[in-house]
Amino acid sequence: MSGSIEVVIGPNGYGKTTYLENKRRELIKIGIDSREILFLPSEIKLLDEVKDSVDTSQTMEYLMSEMLETPAYILKREELFDELDKAISANVASLNRILDEVLALNGSARAGDFIAPNAKKRSIKYPVVINQKDIKEKMGSGQRMQLLLKFAANSKKDHIFLDEPEKYSHPSLLNGTAKAINDLVASGKSVYIATHSPKLVSMLDINFKDIRIINDNSHAPKEIDFDGAVVEAGKLVPVGSLPANCKRYYVSGDSFRECLEKRHARPFVESLFSKHVYLCEGANDEIFIIEALRQLGGYYDDYSVVKTWGKPNIPVFIALYKGLNVDFSVVFDVDDEQKSPHNKVNLAIRKLVSGHTVVEFDPNLETEIGYKITGANKGDSLALLDHLEGTGIDVKFDPR
User: Which pTM value belongs to this model?
Assistant: First the structure.
């Protein structure tokens, strides 16, 4: 049976770890046994976590303990705890008398029994020797994290919290970390992640509805409102007026989300981590934006370029980013405004983009920059780059 996954993203200091901690408290509050929860913090010392069972090392100890448990052991352990409870009950009165005698020296009185069974801490440390040599000498921190995740998949922990699991992995190892997390979900675990890595998120088997974003001073997690974006854009661009290949972006929130997951997944996820997003129609526009930033400034800023695959889709993307409080600019071709859908779509873009930078090419990018398209160079990216580098880009087309 498949489990579930929830991912929270946002800049440092906005409350992602607090969000995870609150989630953990909520689970305990509704009756989930804390022993069913594993929380791996971002500051975990991975080498310590694979040592023998000592007080400073809990994660590996708990996971290993569960993997070694047998029905016979569990039965005997419960018998041991029952015997301990009996011993406490048999001795509580005598210990209370001793405490009373000492408290009486200054006229104080006992508030309750001196000792009582502790139902929350019924655990036994295993006398297990863990072979550190292979782990210490042959594994980096990223591999140790993957080892813990694999143990977690085989443990009885049903709720796994991972705060920045990418922190210890070289980018080339992230696919292994992502696979281990996907395996946790596939094994029926509920997984909660806080991360700064768009690459990790793009490798997870995740529905975009399960992403939470914390990126403003309210420190409140926001869901991605696909339905709201479709409704907002649809007020200005009725779905019936759109070309057939663009209608699926406007039919419903679920349809829009599926388009993003299938056609825009990696650039869209990356954009959720960026300070600024440049929205454009297609490949030539992306080439122009990046070259404009190189020539006019902003090339090394934190930004993403998201291609909407057609101007009619730009309004619904604008509505989505506005709802997420993500700053953006728009670059688009005016085309022939006397014809549909350009008349409605252009008007919608101008209304929705209010307060943000917009660059309009009239009638299109190629004409405005004097780039002549022929059959030979229509899709030639290098030819377009040569032209942009050779002629330079006018500041009036600055997309920032």
Answer: 0.82
- CB-based contacts of 317, cutoff 8 Å, min separation 6: 229, 279, 306, 308
CA atoms of 139 and 63, how far apart (whole Å): 19
> Is the CB of residue 159 less than 8 Å from the CB of residue 38?
yes
Q: What gap in Å lies between CA 400 and CA 398, rounded to an integer? A: 6
Which whole-number Å values give the CA distances from 382 to 188, 287, 288, 377, 385, in the listed order? 49, 10, 12, 9, 5
Read off the pLDDT of residues 97-121 as tens digits, 9 standing for 90 and up. Answer: 987 888 787 888 888 998 888 877 6
3-state secondary structure of 308: coil
Contact 224, 269 (CB under 8 A): no
- Ranges of each domain in the chain: 4-51+130-213, 224-397
Say which CATH class 4-51+130-213 falls into: alpha beta
Residues 357-369 pLDDT 10s? 999 999 999 999 9
